[in-house]
Amino acid sequence: MQYRTLGRTGVQVSTLALGAMNFGAIGRTTQEEATALVDTALEAGVNLIDTADMYSRGESEEMVGKAIAGRREDIVLATKAAMPMSEDKPNHRGTSRRWLTQALDDSLRRLGVDHVDLYQIHRWDPETSDEETLSALTDLQRAGKIRYFGSSTFPAHRMVQAQWASRSSGLARYVTEQPSYSILQRGIEADVLPVAEEYGLGVLAWSPLASGWLTGAVRRGREVATNRSAFMPDRFDMSLPYNRARLDAVERLAEVADEAGLTLIQLALGFVTAHRAVTSALIGPRTAEHLASQLAAAETVLSPDVLDEIDKIVPPGTDLAAHEKFNTPPALLDASLRRRR
After folding, report:
1. What CA–CA distance (Å, rounded) separates 307 from 313?
2. Looking only at Cα atoms, what is the longest distance across the chain?
3. Which residues have C-beta within 8 Å of that of residue 19, sequence separation ≥ 6?
4. Is the dihedral of CA 79, 160, 322, 129 positive or negative?
5. Among 2, 132, 218, 292, which residue carries the largest CB count within 10 Å?
6. How many Å apart are CA 112 and CA 117, to the nearest integer?
């Protein structure tokens, strides 16, 4: 396993990090299976585990907490907040001081710890000012409940705005960003990753295998039968033009991987960790077999020739399904935000 410094924190983290979204109902992973995944990952040198309060409505955090009991000091523990945690309680979401204070206490209880190393804002909240959120996070940090805090899936301009707000208000700042990044989703190379470099942010890339597209399970002439395809069928509907474009790219990428003596998974993870702005790629295994195939990429270093071939297939800065990144500015989704009243 390789290790890199998390932004400018001085904390060393593994280049492959364990994402726990599949722990619990989402991935139908039991506690026994989750603990085995954590055991194997730690034995392989993974030292960063990432979860979120909304993953299976807290079940993932509970399972992570049980799995790491007795070895907390060996783990860089990260979780997230901001996504809705109740259908009928409007204040059980967002990034207000009121909610973040409660949400963090809830997460600490579920995880069975007295602090987390990295607390991340899961999505930018347009209803709450940066100063409100950063002030709350700064106070939680000073209280010792979090060591650092970061953002997740923020558009580049919001990352810059948050850094400015921290500086102008004398508040602690985000030290990481967690964006969606893979060979098939390269749009952040144009803005998010350069901003992260400019401000010295650690980057934890989620979905480096593009929701299963880059695992080898999605190939031409083969029926798609993955966990994701069962509850996200549109992502694998080959009648849609962008999915056909992805399939064409995957077939060409598989050829590049074969010629390089790599699996498609190794190619995909090696690509993400090759970017100089990326700290770690978040893998989200659901089974022991998934984890083994992903850990096989721990030492993968792609040659310039292989990276050049990837660039020919999916040009730098290109998204093949931009709508799946969940960072679309609100004004592009709500017409009222584009028009004078």
Report:
1. 10
2. 59
3. 50, 51, 206, 282, 283, 284
4. positive
5. 218
6. 14
DSSP three-state, residue 189:
helix
- In CATH, what number is assigned to the domain containing residue 64? 3.20.20.100
- Give the C-alpha distances (Å, rounded to integers) separating 305 from 30, 269, 308, 310: 42, 16, 5, 9
- Cβ atoms of 317 and 186 within 8 Å: the answer is yes
Report CA-CA distances (Å) from 94 to 6, 34, 44, 99, 160. Answer: 26, 28, 36, 7, 20
The residue count for the chain: 341
The region that residue 317 occupies, defined by phi over 0 for left and psi between -120 and 50 for alpha, beta otherwise, is left
pLDDT, tens digit, 9 for 90 and up, residues 41-79: 999 999 999 999 999 999 999 999 999 999 999 999 999
Say which of 3, 55, 119, 199 is annotated catalytic.
55
Handedness of CA 93, 279, 216, 210 (dihedral sign): positive
| Global pTM exceeds 0.85 | yes
**Residue 60 domain boundaries:** 3-212+265-302
| Known active-site residue 55 | yes
- Alpha-carbon gap, residue 23 to 8, rounded angstroms: 30
Is 171 inside any structural domain? yes
Q: How many domains are contained in the chain? A: 1
Write b or e for each residue in 199-238: b if 16 or more Cβ atoms lie within 10 A of its Cβ, otherwise e. bebbbbbbbbbbbbbbbbbbeeeeebebbbbeeeeebbee
Pairing of strands 280-283, 176-178: unpaired
* Distance, CA of 236 to CA of 220 (rounded, Å): 12
Whether residue 264 contacts residue 214, with contact meaning beta carbons closer than 8 Å, is answered with yes
Smallest Cα–Cα separation from 54: which of 91, 30, 21?
A: 21
User: Does residue 308 lie within any of the structural domains?
Assistant: no
